[in-house]
Design brief:
The protein is an alpha+beta fold and 152 residues long. The chain contains 6 helices and 8 strands.
Length: 152
């Protein structure tokens, strides 16, 4: 389970170093095999352990390739999907096309989201968090059925 926001620097080759606290579980669960793709609703990337990604692929394979909306989702998620393996130093290469999509430069945020990570440009992350906090403060959103029953 991945949680927390981690400030990380991409190296000159476009690699990010997975924080030490996640490495062993990634080695145990997926031998360091990860899949990175775009987030279709936000300007960030999604990084999945291979078994989690395979569940997404199974769902995508059940969509129709003749339905334009379903085909578009397949095209975007699968078309951008890049497999990578964590090296002995815990680094994984983020492909140039993915870095370009999310406007990643040097300073990034790796954000745990239970079964996956989000990868954000650090400035974009701060802007998104500020917007999210303002939205929560002012109640400018519609509660879904699941959120109506959610409490801390």
């Amino acid at each position: 389970m991945f949680r927390g926001a981690n400030a990380i620097n991409l190296d000159s080759k476009g690699r990010l170093t997975i924080p030490t606290r996640y490495r062993q579980s990634l080695l145990d669960d997926c031998q360091g095999q990860l899949v990175c793709t775009i987030d279709i609703s936000q300007n960030c990337l999604l990084l999945y352990p291979l078994p989690e990604w395979e569940e997404i692929e199974l769902k995508l394979s059940k969509l129709s390739s003749t339905n334009p909306q379903e085909r578009r989702l397949q095209r975007l998620l699968l078309g951008y999907a890049m497999e990578g393996e964590m090296d002995k130093s815990g680094r994984i290469l983020i492909a140039p096309t993915l870095r370009q999509h999310a406007a990643l430069d040097k300073q990034i945020m790796l954000v745990g989201q239970l079964n996956k990570f989000e990868i954000w440009d650090a400035d974009s992350w701060q802007q998104q968090i500020s917007e999210d906090i303002e939205t929560e403060k002012h109640g400018q959103f519609e509660l879904t059925e699941r959120l109506q029953d959610f409490s801390l």
